[in-house]
Amino acid sequence: MDELRASIEGHIDTLSKFTATPGVGTTRLTYSKEDKQAREYIKNKMTEYRLQVSEDGFGNIFGKLNGTLKDAPSVLIGSHFDSVPNGGSFDGPAGVVAALEVAALFAQKQLKPKYPLEVIALIEEEGARFGGGLMGSRGITGLLSEKDFKNLKDKDGISTEEAMVNIGLDPSLPKKRDPKTIKAFLELHIEQGPVLEEKNIPIGVVEAIVGLTQFKVTVEGKAGHAGTTPMARRSDALVTAARMIAQFPTLAIEEGEGTVITTGQLNVFPNGANVIPNKTVFTVDIRSSKEEHIQNVVRQMTELIDLYSQDVIRISAEQCLYMKPKVMNQEIIAHLKESSRNLEIPYCSINSGAGHDAMVFSDFTDVGMVFIPSKDGLSHCPEEWSDAGDIAKAVQILYETTKKLTEAEEK
Ligand code: HGY
Ligand code: MN
Ligand code: MN
């Protein structure tokens, strides 16, 4: 176990170095220089663990161990390797590293699975560069069409495919994958909340994932001189945005049952200290375990937009992502719990307040997720930390579960 723990620490430590903001957390945007560095490391490890390495037309990375059954669907195991700006070292990479170590155990024990095993490292789960998020998994499953993918641009107007080519990726490779080629999807992820740490339990078997939606709201007013424009003659895009955003929390609190709403991004144009803003663009992220709460908050947000539209020239809202609440596959949940019991590793059931690629795959195949504790419940910040020993415990549970799902016998 110490060797496994050391190997995990080595992976996490190396991947954490591939950041655009050294010393201030992990910033690894999709198709960036840092993406390319992490990609090379992951592909080298896949090769070292005797996996056949490939990439698809989105830049998702696959490491395959063939099975003995001809044309059989694969058991996918993995997570994402992009990050939020100034995020942590574990959100995503913990799941990719765990999957690599499961494959390493298959190689060490010379397992020949009936069904292929594929380690997968997914791109743009966070949406930090192109917006929306869950892009790699939505692309594979066809939820994000090839056309919509091509049309996505970052804040500098660089398109997805342009950015891919800039780091040597090939957008012409196959994109959408036939769901019949996937038998199951397993993902280890950090909890990103306080529950497991407070319970002092190392493993959470995920039962359900909240539904979520994200909007990009654009408020258009009129630029003007801060000194000479009378207050009564202003069409101030920032004041209007601020008045709306300040009312959002009440919508979620009054909806209740854990409903949450967040404005994480706000851009002001032209952003001059002595200029009345003529445009603001901000995001709205709404989540709940019950779909009707999400829809109620969206309706009330829309009513607020209509109300404040009279103060400015125009307000528009673009929905970038909508995912229903998802439940994990009961059979896989049972396998994960049985493996934990057999290994005498304490576990509990848990629901996810964070979104994950597993919620995308769950419409196309059997899906299971395992959480490990997050120190102080923190995530999406440089302080994010999880114990490599807990990741090692999850590797053992995922190894036993993957053996069952791939029908691999140890010699
Ligand atoms: O936003 C989320 O829940 C995930 O971290 N992308
Ligand atoms: Mn995240
Ligand atoms: Mn994540």
Helical proportion? 25-40%
**Structural class of the helix and strand makeup?**
alpha+beta
- Which strand-content bin applies to the residues? 15-25%
The molecules bound to the chains, other than polymers, are: (2S)-amino(hydroxy)ethanoic acid, manganese (II) ion
- The N- to C-terminal Cα distance equals 21 Å
Please tally the helical runs, counting DSSP H or I stretches of 4 or more residues.
13
Please mark out the parts with pLDDT under 50 across 5 or more consecutive residues, or reply none.
none
Query: Strand-and-helix sequence, N→C?
Result: HHEEEHEHHHEHEEEHHEEEEHEEHEHEH
- What is the 3D shape? globular
- Looking at the structure, the CATH topology of the largest domain is Aminopeptidase
* Rounded mean pLDDT score: 97
The count of strands amounts to 16
Give the CATH H-level superfamily of the largest domain.
Answer: Zn peptidases
Give the class-level CATH name of the largest domain.
Alpha Beta
Biggest sheet: strands, sense, closure?
9 strands, mixed
> What's the CATH architecture name of the largest domain?
3-Layer(aba) Sandwich
Number of domains as seen in the coordinates: 2
Radius of gyration: 22 Å
Task: Describe this entry's structure for a reader.
- By secondary structure, the chain is an alpha+beta fold.
- The chain folds into 2 domains: 2-210 and 325-410, Zn peptidases (Aminopeptidase, 3-Layer(aba) Sandwich), CATH 3.40.630; 211-323, Alpha-Beta Plaits (2-Layer Sandwich).
- It is built from 13 helices and 16 strands.
- The strands form 3 sheets. Strands 1, 2, 3, 4, 5, 6, 14, 15 and 16 form a 9-stranded mixed β-sheet that branches.
- It is globular and about 80 Å long.
- One manganese (II) ion (MN) is lined by residues 80, 91-92, 125, 189.
